């Protein structure tokens, strides 16, 4: 429905939200990122198909075209490679005797890097991906970054 020119702006009708609101909900409760190849988002496998949460996840992915815009999966894959390289460098620096302030600066870089969802998924899925499991085993403190 469109609003007529100069008409009052009214809040939406109360009801159940159709889209996931990242300001009020954690999208990772609804969505999972494929870190093994496509870097596409899917509804969480724990959600029952047909349930309201599953439908909201699928609808959010579809309406926002989170997988249809080629730049998004490519950017997620690039972020994954960057986070992985950053984690390797952190381990190398830490094991090489880097100063505490340098390590603190490096850990702050994890939070400042775009595509925080990728980092969150790497931590969440690390036990299922051997390469990540090995890196996080070497630096378990990284789970808190």
The largest beta-sheet arranges its strands as 1-2
Name the structural class. Answer: mainly alpha
- List unreliable stretches of 5+ residues: none
The mean pLDDT is: 94
Q: What form results from the Cα inertia axes?
A: elongated
Got a strand count?
A: 2
What is the radius of gyration computed over CA atoms, rounded to a whole number of angstroms? 19 Å
The domain count comes to 2
Fraction in helix = 40-55%
**β-strand amount:** under 5%
> End-to-end span in angstroms?
44 Å
Largest sheet: 2 strands, antiparallel
From N to C, what is the helix and strand string? EEHHHHH
Number of helices: 5
Protein described:
By secondary structure, this protein is mainly α. The protein folds into two domains: 18-69, no CATH class; 70-145. The chain has five helices and two strands. The protein has helices spanning 52-63, 71-95, 100-112, 116-125, 130-138; strands at 31-33, 41-43. The chain has a two-stranded antiparallel sheet. It is elongated and about 65 Å long. The N and C termini lie far apart (44 Å).
Notable characteristics:
145 residues, mainly alpha, 2 domains
A few lines on this structure:
With 145 residues, this protein is mainly α. The chain has helices at 52-63, 71-95, 100-112, 116-125, 130-138; strands at residues 31-33, 41-43.
Write the layout of secondary structure elements.
Blueprint: E1 31-33, E2 41-43, H1 52-63, H2 71-95, H3 100-112, H4 116-125, H5 130-138
Antiparallel strand pairs: 1-2
